[in-house]
Design a protein that fits this description.
single chain, alpha+beta, Alpha-Beta Plaits, SH3 type barrels, five-stranded antiparallel β-sheet, about 20% helix, about 35% strand, binds zinc ion
Length: about 170
């Protein structure tokens, strides 16, 4: 194979791969698209939105190539719309996801998630002596700095960074 042919065949391979990525995440008629999920956070996103309880069709693209992120994951949920409260839970694990509301194959609304002022029952307190780690109760955190993602435990005051938090049940 000469240099020209080789360059040609590489270009074709690249094109097919891009087409392949698009095929993996076929369009939905109505529903919610959650894009730009860091792949390592995909399963936490599924858990936070309780997608295992959702009856509608769900398409998941895992580890897709992304110009912006290297690799990303995407979830499309057919005939399902979430409340802002539900979607804002995602800010705890994936603050930079983009959300699209789809109606009749068109994007009718784009949303970003916002960190709620109070986070209940999701994040585990890093203080082993905290009452929330020793009694059967929901954890509760206040967001003290939403730029840097600093949370403070309602019960013991222990501060922790969003980047390093552990979720309840992990
Ligand atoms: Zn605590």
């Amino acid at each position: 194979m000469d240099a020209n042919n080789k360059a040609n065949s590489q270009a074709q391979t690249g094109k097919q791969k891009r087409q392949g990525d698009e095929l993996l995440v076929a369009a939905i008629k109505n529903g919610t698209v959650i894009d730009h999920i860091p792949s390592v956070k995909l399963f936490q996103v599924i858990r936070l939105l309780k997608l295992d309880d959702v009856k509608s069709a769900i398409m998941v693209g895992y580890n897709l190539k992304s110009h912006k992120m290297g690799h990303k994951s995407i979830i499309k949920i057919e005939n399902k719309y979430f409340t802002d409260e539900e979607l804002n839970l995602l800010s705890v694990v994936a603050p930079n996801v983009s959300l699209c509301i789809i109606k009749d194959f068109e994007v009718v609304e784009k949303k970003r998630v916002a960190l709620p002022a109070d986070i209940k029952g999701i994040v585990k307190c890093a203080n082993p002596k905290c009452i929330s780690n020793n009694e059967p109760m929901d954890t509760r955190f206040h967001v003290v700095d939403d730029i840097n993602g600093t949370l403070s435990c309602h019960y013991c005051g222990k501060e922790q960074d969003l980047e390093n938090v552990k979720l309840v049940g992990h």
